[in-house]
Amino acid sequence: MVYVLGIDGGGTKTVCLLIDETGNILSRGQAGSSNYQTGGIDSAKNAIETAINQAISIFLDHKNYNNILIQGLGIGLAGVGRKEDFNVIQNLVEQVKTNSNLSINWELTTNSTVIKSDSMIALVGGLGHQVGIVAIAGTGSQIFGQNSQGKTKRVGGWGYLLGDEGSGYYIAISGLKAALKSHDGRLGSTQLISAFKHHLNLDNLESLIEVVYRRGWTVSQIANLAKIVDEVARKGDEIANQIINTAIEELVFATKIAIDSLFEPNESVEIVTIGGVFQGMNNFRLKFIESLNQIAPTARLILPRYEPAYGAGILALNALGYFPVNTGLDETQTDPSTNLLN
Amino acid sequence: MVYVLGIDGGGTKTVCLLIDETGNILSRGQAGSSNYQTGGIDSAKNAIETAINQAISIFLDHKNYNNILIQGLGIGLAGVGRKEDFNVIQNLVEQVKTNSNLSINWELTTNSTVIKSDSMIALVGGLGHQVGIVAIAGTGSQIFGQNSQGKTKRVGGWGYLLGDEGSGYYIAISGLKAALKSHDGRLGSTQLISAFKHHLNLDNLESLIEVVYRRGWTVSQIANLAKIVDEVARKGDEIANQIINTAIEELVFATKIAIDSLFEPNESVEIVTIGGVFQGMNNFRLKFIESLNQIAPTARLILPRYEPAYGAGILALNALGYFPVNTGLDETQTDPSTNLLN
């Protein structure tokens, strides 16, 4: 048996999967945020070790083993595209390997320690293979793709201040701006005003300043207001609908740019959609598909086959020479949760 | 002699002017930020007392007096439109009045203690009287006006996340977004990319993420990048020019809304422009005037007659029944500095 760990070091949670060489997920651990850029490197290291420890302990208890040999480790984190950050994470992984509390015998080579961006593991996990595009729209947004030559392309993903067009934050802020412009008399009337006032329990719209600036709302708290824009749009409000449609068009356009820069015209491309905006919002994904297929008819939209941590594990297995599952043509496993903890 | 204090409690500096009933400025004091929302109430109180103490000391030393009777106090601060904030400032003023180190005998009534928004004192100082419009475009932006019936109207000024269209921050962020979209392939080529890289000393545009998010840049540090967009526009770059023109149109439109909601059609309106975007940027103010006069031909643009602290002092004098200077029809005093410390 060959065992690898696949780790998704995210901003809200850290997931670790223990996977064997046939691609079976043997156990799963989860901990808090491992965003070292906001929370610091020690806190990230703790979260990663906690997730690993949980996954390993479940397996060892179940098998009545004392320890386990790990031959591959895949990990994905935001920001590792920069060399400085890559070095930070490499150093962090070295520290984790020396932690004697983990009941692990490590047998990792440089080759079998795979450190990648969060978008790369989302791509590989979402597709179940390495070639195609992932369209992410949650709090932030990003389009990321890779072709069969290993060339990658990122579009967007510049964060809430500099971009993230089409994201939850983008939709929420566009809705708030539209409500305030309407309040000023710079835009026609919209139900967004009453909807925000009601949802945030505000006497008047001026108090938005209090809410957004002084209460120290996080980017994801603001992004959560996207659902208000969606609700108002669903009731037929024209301004809210324009915001939703603009968000869709931004994502469609960004996806088209990624397709064109990686794939031949008429080449079939799988595109996996990930994130709360695609999942939670009324017809958003459907409209995205319709609009994208008008300009990219060979794009084939799928739901995530696995979670990003599985993508990290797959990358580690591939590095060891194992190509266990899913060439990308099997859509039977659309719900990643069904394959966990078996 | 009747003496009043006019205080401008700003986010970068606090200014206090000592003014007599004829409108003469007798002395001037200056201290650091009195933005209590970011720096806390104690720090704001210190800044205000320091500015007052400086203004008073200069005057007392010059006259060889031991103390002075102050009968009016005007103060303008951001955010006092909200009742809670108004109460906070009123309380702060009460504390200042009990400070025995200030060599002041206070003789203030509720009526002669005038607490107003920063935009109101900018309006009155900028115009030298109370009726007209102030168009502010610095780090942030706001249009604020008052008519002869005392009705006021604010347009914009919702802060960097929720609005401030046409501000330095707006121009800078629009420039950064355009550079990144161009980098992604979502927008045509623009000199903004090389200009930002050169100015910020970046090897690649990806490092903008490091600069904007991780170095903890303030809003005004980001807003300072507006000058890069302006420089690139001046060299003929189409995308940079579009950003500048959109900023101008946003300010023109907001000003038009304020004019229409306060004044009769064809009524002559004075509009004072304030802030670094109007002052520092190439032809910005000229283009603003041209564009505004196309839709509001009776709008008459002026440069600030006095600084905001003088506006605060004027309001205190008016409250005491003194209407010393400047009905708003005299444009001879366009440089406020010439009238200081005489």
Overall description:
The structure is a homodimer of 342-residue chains. Chain A is an alpha/beta fold. Chain A has 2 domains: 3-128 and 305-339, ATPase, nucleotide binding domain (Nucleotidyltransferase, domain 5, 2-Layer Sandwich), CATH 3.30.420; 130-304, Nucleotidyltransferase, domain 5 (2-Layer Sandwich). Chain A is built from 14 helices and 12 strands. In chain A, the strands form 3 sheets. The first copy, chain A, has a 5-stranded mixed beta sheet. In chain A, helix 11 (238-262) crosses helix 13 (284-295). Chain A is globular, with a radius of gyration of 21 Å. Chain A binds chain B through residues 37, 79, 81-82, 154-156, 158-159, 161-163, 173, 176-177, 180-181, 184-186, 206-210, 212-214, 222, 253-254, 257, 261, and chain B through 37, 79, 81-82, 154-156, 158-159, 161-163, 173, 176-177, 180-181, 184-186, 206-210, 212-214, 222, 253-254, 257, 261. Chains A, B: Residues 5-316 form the ATPase BadF/BadG/BcrA/BcrD type domain. Chains A, B: It comes from Lyngbya aestuarii BL J. Chains A, B: Pfam families: BcrAD_BadFG (PF01869). Chains A, B: This is BadF/BadG/BcrA/BcrD ATPase family protein.
